[in-house]
Amino acid sequence: MKPHATATWLDDQEMQALAAEYRLTWEPSTDRTFSMPFTDLLDPSKSLNYLQGVSSIFETDSETATVSLFAKRYAYLILASGLYAMSRFNKGLNYEIANGTIESSYQGEAWLPKARLTNWQTTSPEADQRGVWRDQVIEQMFAGNLAKVWQSLSKATRVSRSVLWENTAIYVYWLYENKFAEGATPEEKQRVEEDFHYLIRDAPAHLFGESRNPLKQFNTPKRATAVSDTPIRVRKTCCFYYLAADDPEDYCPTCPKLKH
Prior knowledge:
By secondary structure, the protein is an alpha+beta fold.
């Protein structure tokens, strides 16, 4: 069988870009209270204890809001660097759940955790093998990590997996539509567009560890609404942000609870 990928490494410039913009770090955090291996999220007692602590950061007593807000941050730290490396550098980071750690980090008062990997070796596709390679990279991130965490958290807290997957999907849309093409060459822009199209339309469900592609499931058309002149995707599920907000009527602009 023809090999579909070769072993590679991030160069210094690539690593700096991912560290500066996409929440990847090679340094352990000094804050070990909210730092832990990804795999601890699969242990109900460890994850619930962790989330109880994180709820103080979000300043909410709502377990539902805590799980949802944490899931947003976790999805971002997995996907932002992983998908950017795939689409811009043509390099695959190993985001299998056994290969990383959540590293607690703050920007001012905002808690914005980062990802630190154990094995930093990357892969690059062989000629004419990018589709096979891309599936492997996607599957490691989604089925091999996020799907397992969402299933575990949903089972432990009864927060719907649909909410967690839509939290995931909104970041994929935002990153590809607003961030990943910045400063890209024509070749890189084409790759970004092709990867985004594949993720939200054609990628098979098994790559996500689900019975259907969740990124496609939540990809509703953008439209102007009564609360937004700028076209937006109105969410299908509520992320429960308002339960942690100072104003109980403070909904996200895309929230389905608003009268769009």
